[in-house]
């Protein structure tokens, strides 16, 4: 358990917050300038806040009142930056082994070969960083952090410098890190897709303060706190792969309901997280016929919330889980929607993007 309490003047506002990060991946989620990097750098010991306290399990890293300040190299943290920051004169193997210099004597060490295999970097060991792609460099940076035997991994927007293809390449490795390596992680991001794929808990920051804390499903389903705007609001469902069809679709079981997606890579039986954007859900009071959309889920209206504009956000209960639908207020009135009303949620299979589907061995709580 990481416990953080900080107070620090920061530009136009004061960073003033407290939160706890349990085991798993805790994502600091917020827009640019919200204070995310300042928080992670304070945990790392790269900046010294005016007041505050940082404790990791039973170790104090910083406590102003008690006069405790551990320098960064004594905090036993692994840091993955936006850019890999590998040593250009060292090979990949030498970069990986460099992390072990900072492992405390007697600390449990990760097996080198297991980490190399998990990250798929075996063929890269004799190369120098100049010969690596951006995604390969980040995988090496992850391995170097793991091999330092940290008590906590810090990741400051590690995918921000990568293009979409490289992000899609790296995300599965962070999922494996979450599920296979029992080291907690504090992960900074402004991407709702990354939150959906990786987070076991989320801390939303705005102007240096905690706006909301909860599971990925709770936070992504609350459009009022979405740092990236209402268009990023959506539901996070858990589903299991049933089968792959020869026409390129995968069929999933979501609470007993079938959900069809463009073919996923995971084998039948695998548990997945599926993010469905509210703007991609259409509502009907009767079961529609003659539609091209394959996913038609029976639902019940839980809540309708209107904004200042023409839109309305409808919360829905389904056997697959809680869904959101973003429609106009005019449509809500025309359909006579109200809490408790029965309806159908219609979702196009192709509307669910590949990067909105990820492994869920650590299910959202």
Automatic annotation (TrEMBL):
ABC transporter domain location is: 1-232
Q: Name one Pfam family in it.
A: TOBE
Domain Mop per the UniProt entry, residue ranges: 290-356
Q: Which SUPFAM superfamilies match?
A: MOP-like, P-loop containing nucleoside triphosphate hydrolases
InterPro entries per the UniProt record, alphabetical: AAA+_ATPase (IPR003593), ABC_transporter-like_ATP-bd (IPR003439), ABC_transporter-like_CS (IPR017871), Mo/tungstate-bd_C_term_dom (IPR008995), ModC_ABC_ATP-bd (IPR011868), Molybdenum_import_ModC (IPR050334), Mop_domain (IPR004606), P-loop_NTPase (IPR027417)
Q: Does the keyword Zinc apply?
A: no
Designated name of the protein: Molybdenum ABC transporter ATP-binding protein
Q: Organism, per UniProt?
A: Pseudophaeobacter arcticus
Query: Which gene carries the instructions for this protein?
Result: modC
């Amino acid at each position: 358990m990481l416990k953080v309490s900080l107070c620090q003047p920061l530009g136009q506002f004061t960073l003033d917050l407290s939160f706890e990060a349990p085991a798993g991946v805790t994502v600091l989620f917020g827009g640019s300038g919200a204070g995310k990097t300042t928080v992670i750098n304070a945990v790392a010991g790269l900046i010294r806040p005016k007041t505050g306290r940082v404790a990791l399990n039973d170790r104090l890293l910083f406590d102003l009142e008690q006069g405790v300040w551990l320098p960064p190299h004594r905090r036993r943290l692994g840091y993955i930056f936006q850019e890999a920051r590998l040593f250009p004169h060292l090979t990949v193997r030498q970069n990986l082994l460099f992390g072990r210099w900072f492992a405390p004597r007697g600390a449990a060490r990760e097996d080198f070969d297991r980490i190399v295999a998990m990250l798929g970097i075996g063929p890269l060991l004799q190369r120098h960083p100049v010969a690596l792609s951006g995604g390969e460099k980040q995988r090496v940076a992850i391995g170097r952090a793991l091999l330092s035997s940290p008590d906590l991994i810090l990741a400051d927007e590690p995918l921000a410098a990568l293009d979409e293809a490289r992000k899609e390449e790296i995300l599965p490795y962070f999922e494996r890190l979450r599920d296979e390596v029992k080291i907690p992680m504090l992960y900074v991001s402004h991407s709702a897709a990354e939150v959906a794929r990786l987070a076991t808990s989320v801390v939303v920051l705005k102007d240096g303060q905690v706006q909301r804390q909860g599971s990925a499903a709770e936070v992504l389903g609350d459009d009022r706190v979405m740092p990236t705007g209402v268009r990023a609001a959506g539901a996070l469902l858990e589903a299991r792969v049933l089968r792959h069809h020869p026409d390129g679709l995968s069929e999933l079981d979501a609470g007993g309901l079938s959900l069809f997606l463009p073919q996923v890579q995971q084998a039948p039986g695998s548990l997945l997280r599926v993010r469905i954007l509210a703007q991609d859900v259409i509502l009907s009071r009767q079961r529609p016929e003659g539609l091209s959309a394959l996913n038609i889920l029976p639902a019940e209206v839980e809540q309708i919330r209107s904004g200042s504009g023409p839109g309305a956000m409808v919360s829905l209960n389904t056997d697959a889980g809680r869904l959101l639908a973003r429609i106009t207020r005019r449509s809500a009135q025309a359909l006579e929607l109200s809490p408790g009303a029965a309806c159908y949620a219609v979702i196009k299979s192709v509307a669910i993007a590949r990067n909105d589907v990820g492994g869920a061995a650590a299910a959202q709580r």
